[in-house]
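Hi P.,

Sorry for the delay on this. The queue was packed all week, but I finally got your sequence through. Input first:
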Amino acid sequence: LVPRGDGRGNRPVLAVGQNDGPREGQPVRLTLIDGNRNGEAVLFDHEGHLQRLGGDPSCGVCHHRNMPLDQNTSCTRCHRDMYEPTRLFDHSTHVEALEGNRGCIECHPSSEGAKTYETATACAECHWDQPPPGPIIRTSDSRWAAAPGYMDAMHGLCIACHEEQRKESPESYPASLDRCDTCHDADRTRRLILLAPGPPSTRKRETVKDER
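Then the structure:
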């Protein structure tokens, strides 16, 4: 696979030449990332990002909070709950649908104690006629084999940086840098899943189209 000339993703090649660095038509080592284990994988050019951000001193931009004497810190060092079953619940969507704070009582009727998922009204009280398929992502049999997903962490880090880079150096990056399809391409995703090291999550998710 080689970087595309327009800066949006990579494409396969049959033959390449040799040079000191990757460019159009030349190979680059890429990392396959399926952050939510649902088959919607992307390719990540680690070396390219390292060069653009200033070499080795830039490691802390992405690999934050390294522990003493560690060259790389495991994600689970901070995200300790990621290997546990994960409930798929979007609080902000429910808040908006229930008219903000005025709707809190719909799910949190008690005025005593903390308002948490554990103390909230059961989802089925409102969604009795539409139980969501696969509301919980189960982990693999081995506790440490794979986390349910790091999609939120990936998006929070990558998108924020892409937006910042596009604003600071518009002449160096395409205007679409912070668009979903810069990393996510439907045709490429179908081919990449064949390279995935393990089975994706059984949860099905509709592809959200970027309307920007």
